[in-house]
């Protein structure tokens, strides 16, 4: 993967992937909030405490990604000049990993996720690397998405996540 912005054609038009910047923080946080797992509802705590907990979770997630994947590429996905998602990818000598992928709710199921992952599949193939992703067990949409793209579970599912590896569609 290069460091420059990249364009990807898909059925809905043209996507642009560019490096995340500090100016993307508000978008990333809003998408983080919109992508919370089923059953995670902080509303009984009141808006101020709920917002505080979500911000803490968001910061902890970003810190853990940067610690665990120091060479990862953090990209914002744009469509028609507006951010519609993000993807975090780490490619090492032993594997390619989709660390995180999120699309704004109103653009899900529009082919954006698939369009962004297809070049990663091609790059992993070219480098003879496994392409892996961990998916929250309660995220049924993402579990279906991975299987549809040719990812298969590897190993035993953990309590919270299932590890997937691309094996072909």
Automatic annotation (TrEMBL):
One Pfam entry name: Acetyltransf_1
Report domain N-acetyltransferase positions. Answer: 15-169
Give the CDD domains listed for this entry. Answer: NAT_SF
InterPro entries per UniProt:
Acyl_CoA_acyltransferase, GNAT_dom
**Top-rank taxon:** Bacteria
Gene3D superfamilies, per the entry: 3.40.630.30
| Example GO molecular function | acyltransferase activity, transferring groups other than amino-acyl groups
Q: What is this protein called?
A: N-acetyltransferase domain-containing protein
